[in-house]
Structures are given as C-alpha cells and as structure tokens.
C-alpha cells in the first residue's frame, strides 16, 4: 500500500490496518484503536445507509477547530502578543446545518464566531448561540435589509460587524443608521496589492474583485468622520487569499495589511480588530511543498508567522496589539469528511488469453498473433509499434467492409492480449516515455457509483486533487491500474489524476474486482466547498450523509443520518411536481390498458416500478 502515500497525506487521521482495511484514527484520542473504514461502511449498510455516502467524522472536525485555535493561542503566548485571537468560520465553506451546529458547539470555548458572506448566511449565523465575545463578520454585497438585520442583531447580544466593501455601501449603511437610530459595528475591507501564488491568485492583488483601494479607503474614513461615525469603525479586513501554497506569501501579505492598520490608526480610526480573512491551506498531497495542491507549512507555522509579523509591525509603530481574526474555512473543515463509493464494474483494456489461430484468419490477424513470438523486454517498443500498425490496418479494412465483425473481434482480442503481455514485461521504472504513455491509455475504467459533478465539483472545475484510495485489500499488491468514471453520462465525469508515492499519476493502482464482495473507494478531504458547489448533472442528487464518532472500542456511534435526495426531490428542483409526473404516467398506463396493450398484472408492476423509482435514491441501488 506504500504506493498510495497514505502515511504522507493521511496526517494523524488515516492509516492502514494489518488486515488491509483503511482505518480512521481519532486525532483527539491518539491511544484509541484505529477503526476500520470498511467495517464502518458495513455497519452503516446494516442501518440502511448505502453508498455513495458522504461520511463526516465528528472528531476530525473538532480537531480542525482545536488546531487553529490552540495554535494561535500557543503563538500568542510564545511571542508575548498582547491581543487575543477570535477566529470566525466562513459559512460559505460548508453551510450544512450539521456542520455549522458542530462548529458552533466545538468553537464555543474558544469564542469562535461565524463569517457571513450573504444575507442567507447571516440568517444562519443569527440562528446560533455564540459565546458572548464571539464575532459575526459580514462580508459581501449588502442591501438595506442585510444591514438592518446586522445592526439590530446587536440588541440580541451578537457582535455583528458590517464590513464595508465600497463607499456606496457606506451610504446605504448611513441611511439605515438614520432610519434605526442605532449605531453599527463597522469594518472596512482593504484590497492588498500583494499577489499570492497558487490556484486562487486572482482573489488577491490589484484585480481582486473585493476590497477598497487606498483612495476609496480615504474617502470612507472622511465620510465616517463627517457623519460622526468614525468611532464605529473597529475592524480592518484584508483577505489574504485561499489555499496559499507558500508561507512566505502569508508573511508578506500580513505585513502589508499591518501597514494599512497602522496608517488607518494614525488617521484616527479606533481600530481594535485585524481580520486577515482566509488562505490557510490544506496539504492534499502531503508533499509539504508550495504547489497548487500542497503547502509548505503547518497550521502552527501559519499562526506563528501571523502573530510574529503583526507583533513586529505594531511594536515598531508603537501601537497596541489588536484582536486577531482569521476566516479560515478550508483548513478547518476539509479533512472532516470523505466520499465513499462502490465500484460497479470494470472495462478492461487488456485480455488474459488470445483466441486459437484459425486457418481462415485474415493475414493481418495472423501477423498480429505472430508478434508474441518475438515479444521480449528489449523489443517492447518494436512490438508496440507493430501491434498498433496491424490493429489500425484491420480497423481500416473493417470500415471499408473487407473484414467482418468476427475477424475484427479476433484481431482486437489478440491485440488486447498482446497489451497485457507488454504491461507485464514493462519494467517498473525506466520505460521509454512513449511506452509509458501507451500503457497509461490501457488503464482499466472502473465505473463507480457517484457523480463527480455532485460530490467532487472542484475535481472537474479546477483539477483539484483529493487523496483517492481503495478502502480494502491494502495488504494485497494492486494488480491493475484504473481511471475512475462516475455514473453521469458525461465523459468529463471521471477522476484521472491520483496522488501516489512517486507523484501524480493518470491512473490509480487497484485490485482485480471480486464479484463476491464490494470494492469501495474513498475520496478524502472533501469537507470544504464541495457540498454546496455540487450540482444536479443528470439529476444525481445529494448522496446519503452520515456523521459518526469513533469509539475507543474500535467501533463507531452514528450521530446523525441524512438520507440522500430522492428522485421526487430532484424532480422538484427542476420544476416538476412529482405528483403530476405520477398522474401523467398513470394516464398513459390507463390508456394502454383500455387499448389492450397492457394487462392488469403489467399495469400493477409498471406503476409500482415508477413509484418505487420516484421515491428512491438517485444513485445505483
Ligand atoms: N473569507 C473570505 C472573505 C473569503 O473570500 C474566503 C474564501 O476565499 C474565505 C474567508 C475562506 O478562505 P479559506 O477557505 O481559504 O480559508
């Protein structure tokens, strides 16, 4: 199993058990036994919860919250920082009620708050009981209703900060303040000029869509002073970016944010909070390098860099240390859930045996078969060239009608048999690139029960890499390589980039399927952004979701279960009334019965099949 690099990316969450099962470790209880993931899946199946399944592990989430809060606390103590850390979780990263409820619960001892980027998210935030000194930070475009809600929520004890995104937004705030006669708690979003590297480079720097450049900032300060509300401006927000690969980018951007903080303070703005937004990354590949799917730092190092940079900058300016706020989402929730799916069947691009020679074979079929006679490790390339040539000639003759279907099938089978021999002969390392590329194209297609578009949208949209591994038989040498295709009818619906020990590969090492037992595969670290970004391509809906807790006796507790969408539910999302569908179908049936095209028994079976489908899971059952 070393090929999957589980020890590298699995952190303190995942490992392999001696029986070959992938196991989950409780990060909060390091001495507790590792719990077999296949046994969790079987346990859930017994309770009627089937794959595809999104599995959330409660202690993984708690660990995410503890990790950032404890790391900031440790850095603050070590550096002698005089302020506090008051993080907020950005709701957009995972809005699901079960997740937010737990984040609020686990975060309460840390006075952890919430970030709302829209009115619906503020509505969610205000439905929770936060610690009395926790923040609700409101970002994004805000209308008068949003602002009214934010201002009045302070009467309920919420510390709701309206982060001004533009001078125009300030005018709306001023109107609502005049209407309510209530003072707001204000923040201001500053656009940093520093551009961060990585996949989300465009969310930072001059061309980022949010935040005010300096001239607008000055205009906002002047307007607040003029209207007598400058004392309400308490927080400076400078979003650093997302999935920042290089920790030195963090230092540079925080340094720039501090310059604004110092200058605004010198302007007379009574700032007390410095909010550095998101950006703390996740090491999806475990490589610890500054690249798109990896980062070259730990959570502790990120926190230390932030605290040190702010300390040095403000000490030098002779200013008090502000309360530090970050809006890390990905690093808090990504590792807390995984997608588990079963393989339905495999399409193979090789064959274990070739047909016996036949006197009536076309000479091209005989030529193809003859390649085995000179096939050897030092003539691999030549054999591959010959096989490709003869097979292409055969296909050309078939297209022109000179070869029949059976001859063609014999030729293709001989070709596939040759390919499996070439695969076995090819050395593990040092193969010519052309042979490598050819063998890659011979990877099996494992057809899997999930929708990439619904469950792993970033894999499709931005080539995000998630660790993907078989969940069982990890003590057996994987004897095949496969690309994973989903069950949408879209050829984009596949995973063909995998994190392996020797780098990213176009195919995943897998085991020959055994029809007597299911073969499960897991995609890890899918807790951030994936759930809400997912869509209904081919009308595959939400998967089943289970939230579990790992127990010290190597079993688990089911904390919450959420059934996946039924077909009726997804139909209603696309404007159908499922009852109308049933009625329309019944009408067609009755017409067929009256015209004697359908008897009473078939009528009953057909109606039941339609009803069962409409009330059932959208995935393969
Ligand atoms: N805050 C703001 C304003 C954001 O735009 C984002 C995401 O880009 C975040 C927080 C969360 O960022 P991350 O998930 O990288 O921590």
Automatic annotation (TrEMBL):
Required cofactor names: Mg(2+); pyridoxal 5'-phosphate
GO molecular function: arginine decarboxylase activity; metal ion binding
Matching Gene3D superfamilies: 1.10.287.3440, 1.20.58.930, Alanine racemase, Lyase, Ornithine Decarboxylase, Chain A, domain 1
Keyword Magnesium annotated: yes
Superkingdom: Bacteria
Protein family membership: Belongs to the Orn/Lys/Arg decarboxylase class-II family. SpeA subfamily.
The protein, known as: Arginine decarboxylase
Residues with N6-(pyridoxal phosphate)lysine modification: 92
Catalytic residues as annotated in Swiss-Prot or TrEMBL: 489 (proton donor)
Main EC class the enzyme belongs to: lyase
InterPro entries hit by this protein: Ala_racemase/Decarboxylase_C, Arg_decarb_HB, Arg_decarbox_C, Arg_decrbxlase, De-COase2_CS, De-COase2_N, De-COase2_pyr-phos_BS, Orn/DAP/Arg_de-COase
Gene name as annotated: speA
NCBIfam families: PRK05354.1 (NF003763), speA (TIGR01273)
